[in-house]
Amino acid sequence: MTNIYHKASKLNFIYTIREALIGFGFKLSSHLYILFKTGPAWNIRVEQLLAYPTDSLGFSLGCFLSQHEFEPQPHCENHDIFHILTGYSTNTAQEIAMQYWLWGNGKRSIYSALAMFVGIMFYPDHYGLFVSSYRKGTWHIAIHNIDYKNKLSLPISNFKIKLKS
Questions:
Q1: Apex CA 152: angle with CA 36 and CA 145, to 5°?
Q2: Is 107 helix (H, G, I), strand (E, B) or coil?
Q3: Residue 153 and residue 137 in contact, taking contact as beta carbons nearer than 8 Å
Q4: Main-chain phi, psi angles of 143, to 5 degrees
Q5: Would you give the distance in Å from CA 76 to the centre of its chain?
Q6: CA atoms within 13 A on the CB side of 2
């Protein structure tokens, strides 16, 4: 019994280290990615988002950011909207799964490709999640090419993910 406990303890330690290292790598890479993003930043704060009507996309984004103690990342504001629309959380495996979903949905970026590669290499225990996420992305209407900044006041129900006809 002690041997099983010892193995489980070692495995938890390895998973914790993996999460910390890969999580740090994603944070660092996201800051570098911002430098290469084109287009204007939204220049919006959480407080401004929370001032939108409670049924709006803007309010939902403000709640998501507030709940996770995040601030909008300049040039990457859509990323958090993708979390809201797809339902993926913010831990590393879920971030990777969301990138698989987006790839299946037609979004192509170096960041997504890198995240998927990291998922294959360092998260083999989540491979089934990644495959199913990719498939789910292919079943839905594209969400990655929408100008969300100009739609923040619209009801969140307008953006609930729809299956392709």
A1: 45
A2: coil
A3: no
A4: -115, -10
A5: 11
A6: 0
Q: Could you give the 3-state DSSP secondary structure of residue 56?
A: strand
Could you tell me which residues are beta bridge partners of residue 140? 163
Asked if residues 82 and 102 have their Cβ atoms less than 8 Å apart, the reply is yes
Place of tokens 């800051």: 31
Query: Which residue shows structure tokens 């403000």?
Result: 62
Using the predicted structure, report yes or no on whether residue 8 has a pLDDT greater than 60.
Answer: no
pLDDT tens digits for range 61-94: 999 999 999 999 888 899 999 999 999 999 999 9
Cα distances from 39 to residues 36, 44, 47, 75, 112, in angstroms, run 10, 15, 23, 7, 19
Residue 139 identity: W
Q: Look up residue 27 and give its amino acid.
A: K
Sign of CA dihedral 110, 113, 119, 120: negative
**Residues in contact with 67: Cβ distance below 8 Å, sequence separation at least 6, in sequence order:** none
* 155 bridge partner residues: 56
The β-bridge partners of 163 are 140
Rounded to whole angstroms, the Cα distance separating 83 from 77 reads 11
- Mean residue pLDDT across the chain: 87
